[in-house]
Amino acid sequence: MIRKIAYIFFVSIVLQLFGFPLGAQENYEIRKISFKGNRSLESSYLLDKMVFDEVSYLEKLLTDNEPSLFNRELLDLDLERLRKTYQSEGFVKAQVLLDSLKVNDEKQTVKLNFIIEEGEPYTIDTVIFKLNKTNPQINIDSIADHNIRKLFLLHSKRFSDEALKEDIAAIRNIFLDRSYAYVDVDYEIQLDTTQHLVGITYVINPGPVSHFGATTVKGNNHVDEEFIRKQFDYREGEDYNKSLLDKTRESLYHLQLFSVVSVLPQKDKTTLRDPIPVNLYIEEAPRMNTEFGAGYGTEDKFRAFADLTYLGFLGTARRINIYAKHSAIEPYYLSVKWTQPQLLNKKGTVSINPFLGSNKEPGYETRTYGLNLPLTYRFSKELNATLTYYYEKVKQQIEEGDSEFPDPEDENYLYNKSGVLLSSVFSTAHPKFSPDQGVNLSMGMKLNGYKFGGDFSYLRVWGDFRTYQKIDDLVLAFRGMIGGIHSSDDSGFIPVEDRFYSGGSNSIRGWSRSDLGPKRESGTPLGGKSILEGNAELRYPLFWRLSGVAFFEGGNVWEKAFSYKINELAYAAGGGLRVDTPIGPVRFDVGFPLWNEKKSPQFFISVGQAF
């Protein structure tokens, strides 16, 4: 590799000496930038650090993105930027050279290929916490032992300037949460150039212990100041703690009453002011919020919705929401929801939610009205759980000749449902509309009938796990879902809307909606008491707002409860396109059933990722 770098460097000098300067392609459009040898840093990360930007011909044609123009001075600048980027990531002796310059004089374009010799990185050897002077109130060794795992730069980790900045901020936060509002953190670096090791000593000046002073509230017009002060997680006179200010900001945002919340301690490093006053500035969200939308999908056809929310209904943070929607799957749905936040404590929320609607699925048609009483508890930003009591009155239209119902001669079947639904969601997945990192785990248990009344007694449980991993420009997404239903009735009957179904745009895409699994004699989906699904998807950018996906998935539904036959799984593969929009990606997918000659490919148009 070293010989290759020397050769390239020699050739570039010879070309310029004999009248073939690299600047001969000045102002040619840069079509492609590639890297070789970048084992540790992703190409997308390196591109973000450069002045030059690649723009493909198709991207130029379909978007307003202007390509970078080749310039020798800018090339030298980018070479220096790339070298400094590697040095900041611990590769002190990294070398970056232009490997080749592919020129198309006819199209006046160039492709740049860089070769990188990373060299051996510097890794962390020791991490030491040290006070700038002795303080009997602080046991620095104990603090280091309890908080060392919060740092990025630990023993054997590669050194990084950015990680060092984040670790300094983390150490400051440790002391800010221990009443030291004026803490200052410096560092000393010890280099072992022979073994490429780095020792870091953090020198900490904690300053004096500080306390909270009075809080001034500004910006509220409709929301009572006394109610706002009840959201404070700190009190005047208490020891200063930055985390309590952050929790206060989070509590106020969670009320959904404010569009801006700023909680700023008024520190003065010159005088080391104590106690420290706090300025709370808020901007109230509009009291009345309305949203309307319409769209089209292959499954729900034309769809439309209207969403109206009034904040402060009956005072404080209470709100009322009226929601209506229409689609081919749900011809009508109307919901009124009154919500009372902070039931019992700041993390609890209760709602009263009467509703009515109709469903027209491939396997059934129902009309329903009822009442939901959900109680939600927010354990943290990532975890929440909801316990809902529900009552529903359902009328189902029965297909002619369908013998699974108690009275198959009646064209309509009426029944009552009553029970509790316990659901929980843990999610670190982000960003919201198209996650590329984190996990999402949702679980649920529905207990219908028994002591709650209703015409049928059964237990329905399910779990859905999703994970997202970003690798360079690619995103690997995985989903696994399992569920089962146990009936305690002699008939074993489960209402059609609570059965499991598989197939469709958000399921196994080689089959149309609900088409995978048991069928009635008429050929319509019967649904089942057991389901197992797995999906794997590779997402990759193309250009502008357009990206592509390739997927492989399998699953099935079985009539018996908690019965999963792996040898009966059906498989599908395919691909699709995504166009990013403010409301999420608009997608087009094509799914091909595998090892099933009787099935044809399925096409889907929808909004949002499949999972």
Automatic annotation (TrEMBL):
Pfam families: Omp85 (PF01103), POTRA (PF07244). Residues 28-119, 143-207, 212-284 form the POTRA domain. Residues 313-611 form the Bacterial surface antigen (D15) domain. Its main location: membrane. Coiled coil: none annotated. One of its GO terms (cellular component) is cell outer membrane. The keyword Signal applies. One of its GO terms (biological process) is membrane assembly. It is found in: Membrane. InterPro entries: Bac_surfAg_D15, BamA/TamA_POTRA, D15-like, OM_assembly_BamA. Keywords: Cell outer membrane, Membrane, Repeat, Signal, Transmembrane. This is Outer membrane protein assembly factor BamA.
